[in-house]
Amino acid sequence: MKERKSVYPGSATPKVKWIGKIERLAWGGLGVGREADGRLLLLSAPLALFPGEEVEAEVRWKARHGEGEVLRWLVSDPRRRPAGCPVARLCGGCELWEAGTHATALKRLMVEDLLRRQLPKMETWEWKPAPAEARRHRIQLHWAGRQLGFHRRRSHSIVPVSRCPAADQALSNAIPRLAEALEGGALPSRPQRWELATGTPAGEVFASLEDGRAWRLEPDGWHVSQDSVLHTHRGAVLRHRVGGFFQVCAPWAMDAFGQVLEAWDLRGITLFDLYGGVGLFSVLLRERFQRFVLVESEPNAVAWARKNLEHLGLSAECHAVDAADWMPDGLGEPGDTILLDPPRVGLAPAFSDKLKRAKAGNLVLVGCDGAAFCRDVQRLAPEWHLEHLAVLDLFPLTAHAEFVGLLRPTPAP
Known about the structure:
The protein is an alpha+beta fold. The protein has 3 domains: 2-80, CATH 2.40.50.140; 119-131 and 249-409, Rossmann fold (3-Layer(aba) Sandwich), CATH 3.40.50.150; 138-230, no CATH class. 21% of the residues lie in helices and 34% in strands. It has 8 helices and 24 strands. It has helices spanning 103-118, 169-184, 250-263, 280-284, 299-311, 323-326, 349-355, 370-380, and strands spanning 2-6, 15-21, 24-26, 30-34, 40-44, 54-61, 65-75, 126-128, 138-143, 148-151, 158-160, 192-198, 205-208, 214-218, 221-224, 228-233, 236-241, 268-274, 289-296, 316-320, 337-340, 362-367, 384-392, 402-409. The strands form 4 sheets. An 8-stranded mixed beta sheet has the order 8-23-24-22-21-18-19-20, with helices on both faces. α1 (103-118) runs parallel beside α8 (370-380). The radius of gyration is 23 Å and the shape is globular. The termini are far apart.
C-alpha cells in the first residue's frame, strides 16, 4: 500500500492518496483497509466494495485512524457487474450498485462485523435477504426549480432522473409525469421536496409535500386528493395518509416481519405497541393477543391506527403521546409483550432505565440502525437478555438493515 500527500488550500488536515486492499466490510458499508504501520482506514464508496479489491482512495488521517473516499478501483472483484442505474456513481440513494446478485451477501458481511464487535455473545441469529423483486414503494425527490431528481452523494445538489430502478415500476413511471407537471406549473413549482408513494399491491400513485398537500396521478394528470394509501397483507388492510410514514419496501417488510414474529410464536394477553405508527405490528399480531395498547406521538398516525385496528375488530387503546412519557414504571404482566419500534436514534437512556423495571414477559425491540440497536440491547442488560435476533434486508441496494430482537427477563440468580 502506498500514499502520497495532496494538500488542499484552507484544509486543516491534508488529504493523502492511498492505494491498498479492502480487508473486510464494516457496518454502514465502509471498506476497512490498513496502513503499513497498522492504522485502520474506513473507506466509503459510491458503489459496492468487495473484500480483496484494490482501490485508490483520498484519505484524511486522524489521531489513530484514517477516513476517506474511494476514487477508483485498481483491481476489481470478478463478481462485480454493471450498475442497473445510469446515475449510480452520482446519486446518494443507493450504495450497493455493481454488486449484482451479491448485494445482500455483502450486507450480511457488514452485519456480521457489527455483531462480532457489539454483541459477541450472540452467536446464532437469522438473516433474511431481500427477494430480487423487492422495490421501494416510497421515494423522495427534490425539485430545484428546473430539475427533478435525487440529492447527489454527499451534497444537496440535484442529480436529475427520469426513472429509478430501485423503485416500484409504478413510481418510476410517475417521475417524468411529476417533472412535466412541475415544469408546466400544474403543481406548486417552488423548490422543495416531493414524495411519491404507492400502496400494496402497487397501483395508485400519490405525490405529496411536507405541508400535507397531496395529489393522485390519473391518466390526464395530477389531481388534488384526500385519499389514503392502502396496504393489504394476508386479509388485513392498513391505511395511512399520503406522505405519512410507512415501510419503504412495504410488501417485503410486512412479509419479513410477519415471518419473524410468527416463528417466535409470540402470544399473550396485552401487546403494548410503542412507537406504533399506524398499527403495523398490532395488525401482524392481531390473532395472538387479546388486547392492544398502541402509543405513537404523531396524532395523524394515531388516528389512522385507531381506524385500522377498529376495522379488524380489535380491542385497542390508542394514545397520541411520546412513548417514553406515557410508559409507567413496572409496565405489564408476565403474559404481556412490549414491542418497541423507536426512531433511528434508538432509545433514550432514561427510557431504557424505565424499561428495565417493566414486568412484561417479553420485549421485542426493532431498530433500523444496527449500531443503535446493539447499544440499546446493551443498555437493557442485565435485566433483559437477547434470546433471538433476526436481521432483515428491508432496504435493498443500500447498506441499511432492520434488526429485530426478542428479549426475555433475566432469571434471578
